[in-house]
TrEMBL record:
Keywords: Cytoplasm, Transferase
The Sulfotransferase domain, residue ranges: 41-291
Pfam families for the chain: Sulfotransfer_1
Matching SUPFAM superfamilies: P-loop containing nucleoside triphosphate hydrolases
Subcellular location: Cytoplasm
Protein name: Sulfotransferase
GO CC field: cytoplasm
Organism: Phrynocephalus forsythii
């Protein structure tokens, strides 16, 4: 995969490009290692665009795999239970890809990579993947606040500036449109369970049962009820193994915005101006033309 390094006037992370997608310079520097990662047939990959319900899905999956054992799910942070394959953690210096390599099988990992950047071994080994998509308006808002609080991200600029960056795909992990559409098309050819954030919010029981079926797990009703309870937003928000409060404030400043902020559908209405909403809708119609993929912007 071709790597193109570009200079960006940022005060936080420098950025580069891999395959036309904006990534941090640290990720670009180790891209060869990421691309060469060797998946195994029993690996599970959780994939999302950033701030689309990733941690939520990780916790649901882990609870299913642990048969609803709360204490077992608190054995380590989300970051350590399910390695973030393309990320580089600086203090201590840990490569997500090396963390995954050191894990015993069966392994569960996470990624925000666009479908064309997923290491080829995942496709070669016919791995199961769970993809969660969130409507673009709420995703934009959540991502803006994440950019603000995460000091490892590039400078977000003003809300107006970030809005433009997002709809033109000039944010880390690239275009939301390309991301959700790419994975949507891939699901017809690979073992991908494609879920929607809004559906999980509306009916967690139904969507968690889909995940259980995909993972070939049968659990008693009381275990399912326990999973539904412990993966509610308010419960997870107070779970130190999932809420990223273990990350030093100089990296994630939760006084600027909590990592788990609102977890609702429709918060975009509190941020978008009328003109921004019209602009987004216009871009959306153009970029989503020709796909069967549809989103609900409110419940």
């Amino acid at each position: 995969m071709e790597r193109v390094m570009v200079d960006c006037a940022v005060t936080r992370s420098e950025t580069g490009e891999v395959g036309g997608v904006l990534l941090t310079k640290q990720v670009c520097d180790i891209w060869d290692k990421i691309w060469a990662f060797q998946a195994k047939p029993d690996d599970l990959l959780i994939a999302t665009y950033t701030k689309a319900g990733t941690t939520w899905t990780q916790e649901i999956v882990d609870m299913i795999q642990c048969d609803g054992d709360i204490e077992k799910c608190k054995r380590a942070t989300t970051f350590d239970r399910q390695p973030f394959i393309e990320w580089v953690r600086e203090k201590p210096h840990i490569l997500g890809v090396e963390q995954a390599e050191a894990m015993p099988s069966p392994r569960t990992m996470k990624t925000h990579l666009a479908v064309h950047l997923v290491p080829p071994s995942f496709w070669e080994q016919n791995c199961k993947m769970i993809y969660v998509a969130r409507n673009g308006k709420d995703n934009l808002v959540s991502y803006y606040h994440f950019y603000r609080m995460n000091q490892r991200m590039p400078e977000p600029g003003t809300w107006e500036e970030f809005f433009e960056k997002f709809i033109t795909g000039k944010v880390l992990w690239g275009s939301w449109y390309d991301h959700v559409k790419g994975w949507w098309e891939a699901k017809d050819h690979h073992r991908i369970l494609y879920l929607f954030y809004e559906d999980i919010k509306e009916n967690p029981k139904r969507e968690i049962q889909k995940i259980m079926q995909f993972l070939e797990k049968e659990l008693e009703k009381d275990v399912l009820d326990k999973i539904i309870h412990y993966t509610q937003f308010e419960v997870m928000k107070s779970n130190p193994m999932a809420n990223y409060t273990y990350v030093p404030p100089e990296i994630m400043d939760q006084t600027i915005s909590p990592f788990m902020r609102k977890g609702i559908v429709g918060d975009w209405k509190n941020h978008f101006t009328v003109a921004q909403n019209e602009r987004f809708d216009s871009e959306y119609r153009q970029k989503m033309a020709g796909t069967s993929l549809t989103f609900r912007m409110e419940l």
